[in-house]
Design brief:
It is a single chain. By secondary structure, the protein is an all-alpha fold. The protein has two helices and no strands.
């Protein structure tokens, strides 16, 4: 279990490093960000956030397609 968690954390760090916004951050900061991330798989048609709502989250789409609808 610990090994799987470690591998997942390493994968997340790699995924963060390819995002231009985070590319030049030091490794220790990348590690902190990776520990705070929550990876989710979202089913087709699911709404992540609605226009005008408040959120403390940021979303990164790693694969698949999404639509932005203005209400």
């Amino acid at each position: 279990k610990a090994w799987e968690s470690f591998k997942d954390l390493c994968r997340l760090k790699d995924e963060i490093r390819i995002i231009p916004l985070f590319r030049k951050l030091p490794s220790d900061l990348i590690g902190e960000i990776a520990q705070k991330l929550i990876k989710k798989q979202v089913k087709q048609g699911k709404t992540l956030i609605e226009e005008g709502s408040k959120s403390t989250s940021i979303f990164f789409i790693s694969k698949g397609k999404f639509k932005i609808k203005k209400s």
